Amino acid sequence: MNKIEIKNLTVDYTEKKKSFTALKNVSFSIEEGEFVSIIGSSGCGKSTLLSILEGINTATEGEILINGEPVTGTGPDRGVVFQHYSLFPWMTARRNVAFGIKQVNKTASRAERYQLADKFLDKVGLEQFKNKYPSQLSGGMQQRVAIARALAMDTDILLMDEPFGAIDAKNRTILQELLLELWENATPRKTVVFVTHDIDEAILLSDKIVMMTANPGRVYREIKVPFERPRNRSKLVQTGEYTKFRNELLSLFYSDIVSRIGGEEVVL
Amino acid sequence: MNIQTKAIAAPAIYSEEIKEPSKIKTEFFRRYFRVVHMLFAVLLLIQLLPDQLATETYASYSIWFAAGVEALTLIASALIKKPAALNLFVDIVAFIYGLLIAWTLATAKFNILKAALFPPPGKVFWQFTGDFDKILTNIQSSVGIILQGYLMAIAVAIPLGLFLGWSARLGSAAAYISKFLGAIPPIVYIPYGIALLPTFRSVSVFVIFLATFWPVLGGTMSGVMNVDKKTIDSAKVLNVGKFTMLFSVILPASLQNIFIGCNQGLTVSFVLLTSAEMIGAQSGLGYYIKNYSDFGDYTRTIVGLIVVGIVIVAISFLFNRIQKFLLRWKQ
Of A47, A211, A261, B276, which is the most exposed, with the fewest CB atoms less than 10 Å away? Predict the structure, then answer.
């Protein structure tokens, strides 16, 4: 059964009497427990699409169905991790997580919330940093807290908008593997929509990759990722299949870009 | 080869052993050998000069006060860890000693200033100890009025500011209205307040309420309107309710601006109250100063001035501590 159905989504923005189309007739669906990455160059509308899924933005036309119900706003069925600023700077790591838990579980006592928060902070390796404020944590640690909060809230769906985009290469690798492990080992697995511009990240994590194209934002291709789970990065990247698949994706990506704008600088 | 390395190693250890005590010694000098203590000695020595006025009886109060300050300085020298903080403390003490020396010389010792208007420092300290209970009652009266008006204003202005700032439509109208009403200096409400309200105390509370209300309301509203959209989005995707949004997200996010309003309110409140007390009160620090200067008792007038200064500094210190604590999450 389809967990999320995106139907003919169109988003027009009007700014100073100029209007432009961020998304045009975007349709695809996501199954329950599926990990879907949305990739595309800047301006392809991938973050706009996610913000509509989050419920903080609305579409001009079309709709998104979750469990067959149209999305009308934010909801307790979706947890979100942004690239920046997910955490409240005046709360410690533990309070940030406990605050998220409180919003979905009103009956849990304070002690229960803190206990659950600690459990998830342990899972992301932040035992030592529970009582630190976000300003005292590195960018990577802050994203670990945000992930711990999203997981602790135990929502059916996780929406992640370039969560590792601002993190240095080494820590990004570690966080990708942490997310992969946490997601693969959970039962039932959560439905994840993951926006990224990193092809390797998308291949490592996803069941399906939705490639988008800009001006206006549309779905260019939907590609199933054929690799077995559980995945192991170091083993995976050594296989010929991986190299072949990655090259195919890259050539798709570039053929689209080159065919439309012919060699201009492209930000991936 | 072996012998040579040993020979090199030995002096290294030796020199380190020598270094340690000298380090401690300079540290001791840095802490306790300061110009400030010389000033203290000068202050004591000038007491030996012959008095031009018949005020020898008060000199001991000056000496006791200076001795108290000196004891405090020695304790601070032993306890304060950061050199910069210790320097600051010591410099302030040096200023106090300098002032006392100049004051003593200009009054009791050389009688340069008019004796009726400028009592020697010892007399002021003597008066302070004599009036201690009276001063305490007046502090209580003034601070009580300020706290009542101030806290009431904050309790109303912050929730109202949160609500108005958060409501896009009401907020912009309220911003203009509060700008207009806040622009009226609260002191001009006093005559009308006296007509409306039964006691001087209630008028004072009312005026301090107004003086605090507008800046806190304005600060809160501008704080709310300037909360980062990303912070609001983060809260929205967590599905927070309206109450949680206002008090657990918007309130802490706009705390810095709220404090700016609170600080402004506090400053204006003191100016207002002391002025008002000089006009019509039967108690309070402003009354104490005005009353005794009317009777030509300038010793008590100076005591009152010093006490007002101390009270305001103490309250702002407390205020800053609270602000620092509540904003401890900021770097």
Answer: A261
CATH code assigned at B223? 1.10.3720.10
In the CATH hierarchy, which top-level class contains the domain A1-77+157-174+182-268? alpha beta
Kindly list the residues from chain A whose CB atom is less than 8 angstroms away from the CB atom of residue B238. Answer: 74, 80, 99-100, 103, 153
B249 and A56: CB-CB below 8 Å?
Answer: no
Cβ–Cβ gap B248/A99 under 8 Å = yes
Residue of B nearest to A57 (CA): B233
Domain finish residue from B92, B116, B140: B116
Q: Check B244 against A103: CB less than 8 A apart.
A: yes
Side-chain half-sphere of B249: how many Cα atoms within 13 Å?
A: 30
- Residue A163 to chain B, least CA–CA distance (Å): 13
Name the closest residue on chain B to residue A136, using Cα atoms: B331
Among B93, B116, B139, which residue terminates a domain?
B116
Q: What pTM was computed for the model? A: 0.83
- In B, minimum Cα distance to A154 occurs at B238
Instruction: Assess B228–A contact: CB distance below 8 Å, yes or no.
Output: yes
Q: What is the pLDDT of residues A42-62, one digit of tens each?
A: 778 898 999 999 999 999 999
ipTM of the complex: 0.86
CA angle B13–B18–B21, rounded 5-degree value: 130
CA distance A258 to A251: 10
Query: In the sheet where A191-196 sits, what is the strand order?
Result: A78-81, A157-161, A191-196, A35-39, A208-213, A218-224
Three-class DSSP category at A146: helix
Report d(CA A180, CA A164) in Å as an integer: 13
Q: Which domain holds residue B152?
A: 131-326
**Which pLDDT tens digit goes with each residue over A167-191?**
888 888 999 999 999 999 988 899 9
Measured between alpha carbons, how far is B321 from B325 in angstroms, rounded to an integer? 6
Long-range contacts made by residues A11-17, C-beta under 8 angstroms, separation at least 24?
A11/A45, A11/A48, A11/A52, A11/A57, A11/A59, A11/A60, A11/A217, A12/A60
The residue extents of the domains of chain A are 1-77+157-174+182-268, 78-155
Distance (Å, rounded) from C-alpha B300 to C-alpha B288? Answer: 8
8-state DSSP, A226:
-
pLDDT at B182: 87
Distance (Å, whole) CA A97 – CA A79: 12
In a domain, B57, yes or no: yes
B positions 302-331 inside 8 Å of A (CB): 328-331
How many residues make up chain A in this entry? Answer: 268
Chain A residues lying within 8 Å of B235, measured CB to CB: 88
Q: Output the DSSP codes for B150-184.
A: HHHHHHHHHHHHHHHHHSHHHHHHHHHHHHHHHHS
